[in-house]
Amino acid sequence: MSLDWIYYAISWILLTWHSAWDAIGVPVDAVIGTNWAWILAIIFLVVTVRVILFPVFVKQIKSQRAMQALQPKVKELQEKHKGDRETLQKEMMELYRKEKANPLMGCLPMFLQIPVFLGLFHTLKRLNPDNPGKTLYGWTVEQFNSASNASLFTAPISGKFGSTAEELSRLGANTGTVKVVAGILVLIMIATTYLTSRQMILKTGWAEDPQQRMVQRLMLYGIPLSLLVSGAIFPIGVIIYWVTNNLFTLGQQQWVLRKFPPLVPPKKNATPGKSPVQPAKTGLLGRKTAQPAVKAPAAAPKVAGPKPGAKPVNPKKGAGRPAKRQG
Predict the structure, then answer these.
(1) pLDDT (tens digit per residue) in 56-88
(2) For residue 83, which phi and psi values (nearest 5 degrees)?
(3) Burial level of 104, CB count in 10 A (0-12/13-18/19+)?
(4) For residue 239, which of 299, 176, 184 has the smallest C-alpha distance?
(5) Spatial contact of 73 and 95, defined as CB atoms under 8 Å apart
(6) Tell me: the pLDDT tens digits for 269-314?
(7) Is 251 helix (H, G, I), strand (E, B) or coil?
(8) Orientation of helix 54-69 relative to helix 236-259, angle to 10°
(9) Is 42 exposed, middle or buried (0-12, 13-18, 19+ CB in 10 A)?
(10) Phi and psi (nearest 5°) for 176?
(11) What is the per-residue pLDDT for 306?
(12) Which site from 92, 222, 304, 318 is most exposed, i.e. has the minimal number of CB atoms within 10 Å?
C-alpha cells in the first residue's frame, strides 16, 4: 500500500503554515541561527493534527473512566476464575462488550498519530540540497531549498544526532553543534514522554487488570527508554514535532482531568462513624499534599438504666433527711 497520500497531506500542512507565517512577517532568513517560519510550521502541524483528533481524545478519556469503574468487577472475575486464564479472558471480554468499554481506546490517539509521524520523518529525511526529487509531494524548488537550509540554532532540521560527518558537511552543518542540539532535544523528548504517561496514571490510578497494568508500564517506562536509541535516528524537525506534541498532551490532559476529575472509589472496611481521610492531591511530579481528616463528633455519655425488678428511685424523696442509724 502506497503512503504517498500521507506525504502529500503532511507536505501540504507544512507548506500552508510556512506560507502563513511568511505572509504575516515572520522572517524567512535565520534569526539567532533559527529559521522560525519553518520551526513554527512544524509546531502548528502538531496543533492541526491535535485539533482534528480532539474528539478521539475525548473518547479515550471516557473509555478510561469506564475501565476504571469496572475495576471492582474485574477483580471479582480474577478471584472467581483464578488459575483458569482462558475463562477469565472470555468473561472479561464479555464484561467489556456489555459495558461498552474498550481497553485499546487508551492507545488509539497515539496509533492515529503514527502515520503523521512517519510522514514527517520521510518528508524531512528528503531535505537534502543534493536530492534531485525536489518537486515531489507538491513542493516547489524554492520551498525545498528553503526547508533544506532551515535550522534550529544553526543545526539543520533534517540533521540527526547519529548523522555522519559527511552527511552533515553536505548540509553545511557543524557536527558538534548538531549533536548538542539534537542531544538536548532527545532528553526533553524522553522527559516529556514519561511525564505525559505519569500524569494520566497518577490521576486515574493503576489498573487491576494485568493486561491493562502491563500496557500502563509499557507506556510509562518502555517507550521513554526506547527513545534513547531511536532518538539518535530522528531528524531534529521530527523531535521538535514529538516534544511539541507531548507538551500539547500535558496541557490537554491537565485541562480535561481538572474539568472532569476521575471518581475515587470508596475504601472497603471503612469504620462506621468515622469520616474517611480525604484523598491526597497529586501534582504532575507526584508530590502529595495530605488533606486533614475530619474528626467525628464525640458521642454522648451513656446513662445506666435500673436493674430489672428494682423499685424506682425518686431522687427528690428523702433528700436532705439524715440516714437512719443501725443499732
Answers:
(1) 877 777 777 777 777 788 888 878 888 778 888
(2) 90, -15
(3) exposed
(4) 184
(5) yes
(6) 544 444 444 444 444 444 454 455 555 555 555 555 555 555 555 5
(7) helix
(8) 50
(9) buried
(10) -60, -40
(11) 55
(12) 304
Indicate the pTM of the whole model.
Answer: 0.71
Name residue 86's amino acid: E
Angular region, 162: left φ>0, alpha ψ -120 to 50, beta rest? alpha
Cα 279 from chain centroid?
21
Give the mean model confidence (pLDDT) for residues 234-257. Answer: 90
DSSP codes, 136-173: GGG--HHHHHHHHT-EETTEETT-BTT--HHHHHHTT-
Alpha-carbon torsion (248, 253, 254, 258), positive or negative: positive
Q: What is the DSSP letter of 205?
A: -
* Residues in the chain, overall count: 327
Q: How far apart are CA 145 and CA 75, in angstroms?
A: 59
Residue of 118, 150, 185, 117 whose CA lies nearest to 26 = 150
Say whether 15 sits in a helix, a strand or coil.
helix
